[in-house]
Each structure stands twice: as C-alpha cells, then as structure tokens.
Predict the structure of YciI family protein.
Amino acid sequence: MEQLEFLAIGKAKRENWLATMTPEEKAIMGKHLEYVRQMYAEGKVVLSGPCLDGAYGIIIYKAESAEDAQKFFENDPAVQTGVMDVELHPFKVEVMEGR
C-alpha cells in the first residue's frame, strides 16, 4: 500500500515560548525530539524542525491513513503533556533533494 504524507504544524501554547521554556518543558521537548528521531529511524518521518523565530515547528510524516498519522501525534510527548498543539494536513512532497 502506498504511504500518504502529512504536514504537521506544531504550535506552542504561549507567545515567546522558545525564550521562556521551563526546565520541565525543555525535558518534554527532549522526549519529543527522541520520539521524532525514532520515527525517522523507522522511515516514517521525512523531515522535521522548528522555525528559528519560534513561530512553529513542522514534521512531514508518512502514514497509511489519516488515522495512523493522528495516532502518531497523539503519542508525541509534547502533545500528550499539552506543551504544544498540532494541526495535521494531507500533504505531498513534490520537490525534494534526493527525490
């Protein structure tokens, strides 16, 4: 079955979040990064990273269905703990290095 791609936009719950993260939030974001890296190692994440101005972060994720993609984000430590909200959109990578 062909895998679908999804764009996730992760937004922090407050303004100026990058500059005002608590130690607990930094630890949660460390777990978030571990989780995303594990999914990358499994071939499920195409790319991931934050906007350097703190506006939001993005993940391009491969899944067999929208439900599977939703489960991925429901299991993300940053989403589970309420540190960030995620908007999920069907997406297609048209141009990318190596494709």
User: Anything to note?
Assistant: Residues 14-91 form a domain with the Alpha-Beta Plaits fold (CATH 3.30.70.1060). The chain has four helices and four strands. The mean pLDDT is 92. The longest helix spans residues 23-41.
